[in-house]
Amino acid sequence: MTISEGQNKKLQDIVGTSRNIFFKAMYGFDPEEWGGVNFQYIDKFLKESQEGDLVAIYVTKNAANAPSGYRGKIVGFYEISHKKIGLKDCISPVEQELFKDEIKQGKWKDCLKATRAWEIIIKDRKPVEHILPATYSPENARLIDSITPKLTDTETRNLLALRVSERKIYDKNYDTAGSLHSQKQADQAKTLCNRL
Description:
Layout: E1 2-10, H1 11-15, E2 21-26, E3 36-38, H2 42-48, E4 54-59, E5 74-86, H3 87-90, H4 93-98, H5 100-104, E6 110-120, H6 128-131, H7 141-147, H8 153-160, E7 163-167, H9 183-195
């Protein structure tokens, strides 16, 4: 589900041009179910990034459950906080069930809570090797997921020029994915409902 504000605008018109963008491979992009990003080396990422930096999400070519139009492409962005939370607090119960084996094995423990997310419009989605030629190659695809590299200035400019639509983010403090972005907003909604 999209948010009406910031539809089909260039990302740079929404976030400016001064943020760092990092690159992360995932099996899909669904902010309403995943309210953050998990990292193999989360403490390293925290040292190298700043609150509010962006993470460009590349959907792996072998992501079996991802729509075919997503595979092999950068499809969206998360704006990342430095709030480290347990994975179960970051993903919906539906996703917890889907990835219960990985969670049980401790494969994914923590994530960084996202504050906003944007999906690249279909017309602007390009194969990852075309838009990030300096950072991505098939030979380093597995390495990318573990190190979450910062993009070059040219690649950052390329990504900031893409048109995006803002997406809601999963928030376990509210019953439906991302309908409210904070506990304060949830409390305000309850107060308003009680007045009616």
